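Review form for a predicted model. The reviewer records the input and the model, then writes brief findings.
Reviewer: anonymous (R2)
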Amino acid sequence: MIIAGMLAGCDTPPPPDIFAMPTTYTTGKKPAALLARDLNNDEIPDVLVANSEGNTLSFYEGKGDGTFKDPVTMNTGREPMALESADFDGDGIPDIAVCNYGDGEVAIILGQKDGMFRAKEKIKVGRLPIAIAVGDFNNDQKKDLAVTLRFDKLAILLGTGTGTFKLAETYQAAGTPAHVIVGDYNGDKNDDIAVALNAVKAGHIKVFYGNGDGTFDPPQRIEGGTQSSFITQGDMNQDGYPDLIISSTMVDSLSIFLGTGHGAFRRVEDFAGEKGPEYLVVGDFTGDRNPDIAVCNRRDGSISIVRGRGDGSFVFPHYNYPVGTGPRAMAGADFNHDGLLDLAVLLYDSQLLEVFLRKIDVPESGNS
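Model under review:
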């Protein structure tokens, strides 16, 4: 439960009461990943959870008031570890792509008009697919997929527009690629790919710049961070260009790379997180219209709100809120249509989904 100011050893004033008490739902065995998206075209965010030990997905249909219906269970391959959603077959209905870690494949599950889902195909991609992102890498208006393989590969799957994919190029991505995101980082209107690297000695990330034909140049090495686990993006200094944010779970730090819009990044000095920061959600959590970062902290059972000043710098100390033990993944959406960003958090060990609704806009309490 989130109760302001309950973290042990905290000498700072209690953080503001941003979130209401959570609503809790059971998941399948060992929930490892989640999405918060509208998956049935009713304009209400739903939640999809990958249960890594149960070899299933749990679909929680949103009611629009911040609560969810009982989950519908879908079978997957072995050890589903990552999820993405987009319209892969052009029917206007969201579909699902799942990384089955234990099978070395990506499974495609198509959405139906009745709100249900139907398995379409499984594509072999190589050993231990661990992360996935959606883009249009050859500019044909059809959704493609980028998949990182646990040791040293980035695989590109080009979509046909019918719900099927063909394995295209596989690129070297040495450094134990972990998480992956897609964006246009050099302003050429082609999708690029940024990869977090989890190797012990990896003090950098990699960016693959797209050529617009489904191929990519050799990756550019962007120095900064240590053994990164998760990567996301947002316009943290509000200059119109995407910035990259990474978490380094093993060394308890976060890193910011401010984009120039021309393919270069300016690294902001790494700063301390709480214990085991991993999943990140960018949004305005304090009501000052500046982007903040919500951080899921694996080792101390908490989430943090890192307050942004709007110029790429951040206010300290963080707002810290305890949750259940073993938070594993987190996603954000407006679950009750009040215009505020809410959070969904997975508790891996207790096999629970917790949904935290924002209470009110919280005024900025200082810029120290």
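Findings: The radius of gyration is 19 Å.
Further findings: Residues 24 and 175 are 37 Å apart (CA to CA).
Recommendation: see findings above.
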